Amino acid sequence: MPTSRTNRPAAAALAALALVIAAACGSSGGGKTTSGARAKVLAVKIDNVAAARPPTGLEKADIVYVEQVEAGLSRILAAYSSGLPPVVGPVRSARETDLELLRQFDEPTLAYSGAQSALQPSIEAAPLDALPPSEAPDAYFRSGEHAAPHNLYLRPGKVPHASTGVNAAEDIGLRFAAPPPGGTPVNERSVSYPSARFTFTWSLDRDEWLVSMDRAPARTASGDRLAAATVVLQNVDVQPSRFRDRGGNTSPFSATVGSGSAVVLRDGKSYDVTWQRNTAESATGFTTKDGNPMTFATGQVWIVLVSN
Fold it and tell me: Labelling 223: which of 27, 176, 208, 209 has CA 20 to 30 A away?
């Protein structure tokens, strides 16, 4: 996955041409790819409390979804398709929000550490390939670098998952192309959950948004900064679900079917857009104020689900 764009004039010209062609074809930006090949998505639920950091393999994901969980903390759902790292983790348990998000993809594989018994029937009924450790024991291992339960990792190479090389973002209709007109220059943007905070700071040198979590620079397992080419701050309804964790805390559910507002950060600017997803089976479309599909910068996309 590209993490920088060194030949900016040439890349911009090619991207602009791609945008014109796509517009002529009448793509809405929220539909699934029309290339014929669907992405084979491996989604991994990744722990994101301080004791679990830094994550391993997160920088290789096509899309990084951030969602609120119990006690106002955050957890990550990483979608891989264009490439797979050798190791991903720490892996944690699934939530109801994951099941709705993953309906956008074509029967994805969901790697997770487990789920509460009340949620398990919903996972079994969902159109996905559920892959907890009990289904693929050779693919998971415990690391000595973190204390349990923050030490479960996945080896994607040992998962029965065939990659097509199709980018998961493109698979659900997100378009990598030149930026739309307008936008507001911005150097930094932060969002907060009750017990978590994310800050995205524009780096002109890297052409990316550097990620900070809980006011500290977020890093990969190798020590590099986590960064995104495009960040989407998607405003959604966060509701109490009927599920609770072991401590009795109610699990929140982030509703991603419907419509609402969002902010897209790319190329050092912010864009106010609207999002729409009519059904669980349809993909999420992001539309600019002038009614055109929002375009995304080439590279990793972070989508942070923010409570209205």
Answer: 176
